[in-house]
């Protein structure tokens, strides 16, 4: 038991690694995750709209992109973009792998977020679009102002879940060889664990990840509960209106 505690809960190493985890690792993890989430959300919305298009030349590229980036392991995508595309983009990023890590995470996230948006948009009753067109709106305006906002609202829990996955996937960018000041939580914990032969720094890194992901998990549950309550109230109001009309 003492050996187990010394291997995983050695407070000397935990306190030693915590300043770097909070000052460098947490900041870089959030920069990687938030940047990839924003870019991935924008690209995902474009993919969703393209995937729902009636034009084949828009629909098929979105489908192929989604299949490729959802089908490949995340680490393979990160290595291909970071080490392969990085050679072509050296004139833009130099030897700095940080932007390439963000780009790789963004492209991966876009494939999943695009499918989330597409499912949300398709869940909106077709009558919403038809009613908007009957009021004189163009197809694009009706989608932008009526259908898409309703679809996005319905998939908020799934979007937050995807952000949680993105935070965890950010650990994989350490394969690109970031500088000391660019290391994320996992890399900082791993470096000290390798130097000391003790796993306590990785446990400390895991604790910081939990500080990020656990509140987000509860946020997902809260949003989902609020949405279910809203749908229940809407359904009851509709039934009351229908009953009143019948009377």
TrEMBL record:
Cellular component GO terms held in the UniProt record: ATP-binding cassette (ABC) transporter complex
Keyword annotations from UniProtKB, A to Z: Amino-acid transport, Cell membrane, Membrane, Transmembrane, Transmembrane helix, Transport
Domain ABC transmembrane type-1: 26-220
CDD domains linked: TM_PBP2
Subcellular location: Cell membrane
Membrane topology (UniProt): Multi-pass membrane protein
GO terms of molecular function: transmembrane transporter activity
One Gene Ontology biological process: amino acid transport
Regions that span the bilayer: 30-52, 72-92, 98-117, 158-179, 199-223
InterPro entries: AA_ABC_transptr_permease_3TM, ArtM/GltK/GlnP/TcyL/YhdX-like, MetI-like, MetI-like_sf
Pfam family, one: BPD_transp_1
Main location: membrane
Keyword presence, Ribosomal protein: no
Family designation: Belongs to the binding-protein-dependent transport system permease family. HisMQ subfamily.
NCBIfam families per record: HEQRo_perm_3TM
Protein name: Amino acid ABC transporter permease
Species annotation: Amycolatopsis echigonensis
